[in-house]
Every structure is written in C-alpha cells, then in structure tokens.
Amino acid sequence: MIYVNTVIKLLAGLGESNTFIRVCWISPNSEELFVINITNSKKMELPYLMKMEDLKNDLKDSKAEKVEYEQDFHIINPSNEYLEKYAKKLNDKWNLIKDTVYVEPDIYFSAERMKLFQNIKNKTGAGYNVLYDLLKRYWFYGKCINGLLPNYFDSGAEGEVREYKTRPGRKGKNIKILDDKDFVNFQKAVEKFRIAEKTDIIETHQRMCEHYYPDSYYRKRGKLSPLIDETKAPSEKQFRYWYNKNYSVRERKGHSLGQRRMKKDFRALLGSNSMYIEGPGYLYQIDSTPADISLLAIDNKTPIGRPILFIVKDVFSRKVVGFNASVNHASWVEGAMMALENAVTDKVEFCKKYGVDIDPEEWDCYHLPRNIVADRGEMKSKYPNGLVGIGVDIANTPSYRPDLKGVIEQHFHITNKTIRDFFHNYGAILKDKREPGDSKPDDTAAITLDTFNIFMIEHIIAFNKMSLPREFVVSPEMFKEHVKLTPNGLWEWGTSKNLLHERPKNLIHYTLLPKMTAKVTRFGLELKANTKLCYTCKEGEEVGWFVSESIEGNKEIEVSYDPRDCSVILIRLKTGKLLYCSLTEKFNEYRGLSLDDAKAIFEFRKQEYKGLSNNNKQAKADRRAMVKPHIKADIEAKKAAKASETDKPIGKREARVQEANSRKRTDAFTNQWPEQPHEVVNKVSEIVEKAESNTQLPSENKLSEFLRGKHKEKNRSLHA
C-alpha cells in the first residue's frame, strides 16, 4: 500500500543517479497523487502529479521500490536546545502557511496556489519567494513543521559565545555592556518580583534597579533610600529583551496570570475554528487508568494487584488502535510509550505473541496519526517531544479537565464495566470501598497478566465491530454512502481522507525511547549510567570507531535505550542513519537484564570492592608477618654457613640433584599412609633375607653407582 509520506526510490540506468520521491497527497479515489523529489535538499522542487496506476506498475516491474529514507534527519528531529533556540522563527514561518497547507489539492495547482499566496501577501506582506521556499521545505520534509527550521548545522561557530567590546544596536544614553553578573541579577529579579509578587515587567525592572544596582544610599526623613544612576544599570529595553528571549510565551503568561488561570484559559489544545477532525488518523487520544481487577503472578498464586491500562483511540472513528497493560506504575516507558508503539505495530504479529490468530482486517491499525491529545501525566515530559520530528503533534489538556478527552474517558467506563462483568468472581474490583464482610479481590483473583492481555485483545476486536454510541452524530456524507456505523466501518470509510502516514519502525523506536550519552572507547560505546556497559556494531568495527575512540569526530554520542532490556541500543549518525549496537562479548551475561538490574550489579561490585579494601590490606599484612621470620632465619643460616665453610662447595647442578632426591623422600605419598603392622614387616624381612640368600644383591653404594651409570647412558643417547 502507498500512503502519505511513503518514500519511493525510482531506479535509474547505468551512469545515472537514483531519484527519491515522497508522496504528499492522494486523491480520494486513489487514482492520482502528488509527489515531490527529495533527492537534493539544496535544490528543492515543487510537487508534481502522477497516476497511481503508473507508480504501482513501476513498483511491480521493479523500476521503483519503497524505501526507508529521510533527508536531513537532524532537521526534522533536532535537539531540544536547537528547537528552543529557533522556536520563534519556526512559529513565525508556520503562521504564514498554516492555513494554506491544508487546502488540498488546490495548493498543488499553480493557479490556485497563487490566489492563496495573494491572500497571504495582502495580510502579512510576505513575498512569493518566501512562501514558495516555506512550502517546498514543508513538503520536502514530509509535511513536518520542523522542516521550516533554519539549517545552521553546517555553518557558524557552534558553541562559541560572541564577545562585544561595545554595546551592539542603537546607542542611547545608557551605554552599559551586560555581563554574566547582570544576567544573574535578571534571573533573581524575575523569580523574586515577576513570579513571586506578580509585578509587571516595568515594575520588575524598577525593583531590580533598587535592589541590585544602587549607586549609593541617602537618608530621607530618617529612612535609607537607594540612589539610582541609570547609566550604571541595565535599561528596561535590555531587561525586556532578555526576558522575552529566555522565557516562552506560555511561561510569560504564567508569570502574569498564575499557573492555574493560565492552564485554564490558555490551555494547549489542537486546532481552531478552521481546524476540525477530518478523518481517521487526524487525532488520537491516549490515557491510562487502573483496571478493575486484581491479577496473579506467573506462579498462579501470588496476588500482584491491579494492572495499569493504557488505551489509544482514534477520535474520528472511535476505534481502539492500541493498548498496553502493565503492573508497573504509570510512566512514559512502561505505559504511554508501549501503547503508542502498539498503535503503530502490525496487530497480526502482536496477537501471535499471545497465541491469538486474527485476520488483518479485524484490527488493521498500524499507522501514525497527525495529532495526539493526552493529559498532564506520562506525556508531560521531554520524551514525547521527539514525536514532532516524525510528523506527530502533541497536546496536553489542563489538569482537572477530563471532559476534554471525553472519547477516551468514556471508553474506560465501558472497559472497566466489561471487566467487572466478565471476571465478577475472579478478582474483579466491584466497589471503590469495601464494606465489612465483602471478599477481598486478592482472595478471589485467578487471572494472570497474559490472560488479561488476551482478554483485552478479544475485547478490543469485539468493540471495534460493535455499533457506535447512540449519541454519535451521523454526517450527511455518511448518510449518502450508507456507512456502517461501527468503528471498523467508519475507519474503513474515512481512510480515503489519506490522513494516516507511516515511518520506519527503527525511527519510531528511536523517537519514543529515552536518550542517554555514551562515550566512545576502545572497549566499545560505554554508557554513562554508572554501569560501564559497552556496545559495538559491525559497521563501527569496520570503520574503526573504537580504534580512534571517536564517531564522526565526536568522543561522545547520544543513544536511545530501552530501560527494560539493556541488550541493544540505537544510535543516530550525522547523516540520519540509525544503527543498532549490541553488548560486547565481555558483557554477554547481561543480555536480557533491565538497566536497573545492571546498575544494581555494578553497584554491588563497587560496594563489595570498597568493603574488601581493608581485608586486602590486612591479608597482605598477615602474609608479610608470617613469612618475614622464616626469611630472616634463612638469611642468618646463610651467613653462618659461609662463616664455617671449609670444603669447596659443590656445583649448582649437583646441589639441585641432591635437593630433588631429598624432596622425593619428604614429599612421597607414602609418608601420608598409615604404618604397617610389625607382623607384616617381619614377613617382608624374611622374604628379603631369602631373596638375598638366593641372589647376590649389590650394596647401597653399588646400587647408586649403577643408577647413575644408567642415567648417564640415557643422556648420551639423547644428545647423540
């Protein structure tokens, strides 16, 4: 299937370069589509019309192929610092074209586009060249707002702070040049007066000058009053510029109105009067709730309490597109991230993990939405911000306003009621507060987490087949086309709007997972997480990252990791290429462990070594104390032997032989055997005497000479 944002590589002949195109828009009847050439970011082009049949024929004839390709990944998924730095520029550019980009397909035709441009120019004064450049960048980067960001990655002196010898800008009577001390005073004044006392910016500047920039003090009516010299204090304009630069519009609203009123009257919600839910994939809602059931552990006897249930639902069709059930506390990694990942996962493969075989059309949801609305819980963190880079906007509703997510909130009521009815006698929590005599849910619990997941799969499939709520408003278009009023029917009918889009799976994982810095060493990529775990990949070994201890000139690199399994990490190169890195052979035993488990092991080792440090020193001291007297005795014996030496000492070899013979008798195993009874010894003596009478045995000296002769003959034969 071909969707919006699908990237296709058009294969060229010998000596020619391949061309990459991105799908921008698909007609409702899926016969025509507009595509844009994304081969060269330095020379962007306008979209052009193609026939769907021609493109499918090229794919069928192997003249083209679907690929996972993204140009300038650092533009669509920049760092938080870069995004914050140029947020104002981005918003200004987006405000110029935001009401135009959704006028599809008119925006793709030259004549209609010029009419839209003329309206914008009349309102804002923006030139045609500016508007063309913004539209091209927006389409080029997959209808991603971040595509409008300025590309300063390969220019300028990054990280260097410009130092001024004279104050920049127009010169007035106040010529003070600001330094770090002034910025610290600015921050203190904002926190003390603007935020704490809710003073306006003019009064905040006045109070700042009185507290931090008095030239001196003088006494008036018996009271000390600060004497202010404007030429020695920052001007109001300088203070206002710094304030607007360092605080967002949202933060400045909070300073003046208070956080509670700001969240109520200036809440972050998607859309406006001109923006409405157009079809499936335009808006997903996500939220969590404790399920009304107590579960058992895998041993089928230990209660583990209520699971936390995350559900992702499409607002247009009311279809459940993903879920996650976990016994961990609600968090981004353990809940929201898993639910979103499930929403873009092939459900056939997902259900197979639990032994449930379904047909693809029973749960055909594996796409990214345009927008996601959540509450101020797990999604209110830095991790979901990366979704903007893959074309998904995030909005958080204010606190205490569940009515703003009515679709998902109502679904929780339906799901928990079904759970209570289905598992009435098997651990269901029937009341919020138990009364005396009521059974405990833990006592009647009989369901494991895997069984609960199977139930949720079947429940969701059944729900998507059932009729919509009776209060659902049927549009005239639905009436004309006799749309089946079920989530599946509405989803199937609405997909002709082509609002669903897709991204590579590894890009989705990189975006969703938390980030960490890793150091490039000869031992691999070493995580900075108090673990010293090291990772490697085939490409890194071939290029020589670990020999040079750097990747693309950097000693450190940002990595995505899954806290639940430290076996593999994901890194992104400057080109945007994503690579999987696995644990080195040294840490093979850590495969399958969570990052917390790995940290616990390393902490255990650290504490053990720390505790054994004194033992090591004591063991060394004991060793020296036990051996030192014997060494001293040998030294004294050596001196005595040299003093009484009369005969010429024997050679080293002869002395070594004598020492070996002596040790043979001393070290023989027979010394450890029990002594034989005297009767046996006497019998042996009699046998020996009889043998001596029959055979003349050589004396001890003769026997020794005989053995030495045999030894010399053996040596001569070896050296011959």
From TrEMBL:
Q: Which residues form the Integrase catalytic domain?
A: 276-477
User: What residue spans carry the Basic and acidic residues bias annotation?
Assistant: 638-667
Region of interest (Disordered), residue spans? 638-678, 691-720
- Here the segments flagged for biased composition (Basic residues) are 709-720
User: Record's PROSITE patterns?
Assistant: INTEGRASE (PS50994)
Q: Which domain of life is it from?
A: Bacteria
**Classification via InterPro entries:** Integrase_cat-core, RNaseH_sf
Q: What is this protein called?
A: DDE-type integrase/transposase/recombinase
Native organism: Paenibacillus plantarum
**Taxonomy-wise, where does this protein's organism fall, top ranks first?**
Bacteria, Bacillati, Bacillota, Bacilli, Bacillales
